[in-house]
Amino acid sequence: MPIWLGYDEANLRASRQRAEAVAAMLEDNGIDADRIEIIALGEMRPLAPNANLDGTANEANRARNRRVDIHIAIPETGDDEEANADEPGEDGPGMSGRSNSTD
Asked: In a 10 Å sphere around its CB, with 0-12 CB exposed, 13-18 middle and 19+ buried, how is residue 55 labelled?
């Protein structure tokens, strides 16, 4: 069985480059760089197995596993923000820009 030296490093580098490209696009569209965190995982968290049961490569799954996941963290609201929720804002009187709809 051949040993692929550097294979994991190459996948990790490609993972990081994909994430950095997405981060750059977010920054270009007005997201502050301080709000973006990049975590490159390489092959550590695949959505689907990279190989079939017989050991051959599953190219469709490998393509699905080349991705960037985006997690959006909503900051916790402080007392000041909740106290101002009933004041007129850019959304109108009493609107905080959030929806409690269950549709």
From this structure: exposed
Tokens of 58: 């599953």
pLDDT of residue 100: 41
- 1, 14, 42, 65 from 45: Cα distances, Å: 24, 14, 8, 8
Distance CA 15, CA 36 (A): 16
Q: What is the pLDDT of residue 63?
A: 93
Question: Where are the chain's structural domains?
Answer: 7-72
DSSP of the chain: ----TTHHHHHHHHHHHHHHHHHHHHHHTT--GGG------TTSS-SS-SB-TTS-B-HHHHHHHS------PPPPPPHHHHHTTTS-BTTBTT--S------
CA gap 94, 85 in Å, rounded: 6
CA distance 10 to 39: 15
Statement: the pTM of the whole predicted model exceeds 0.70: no
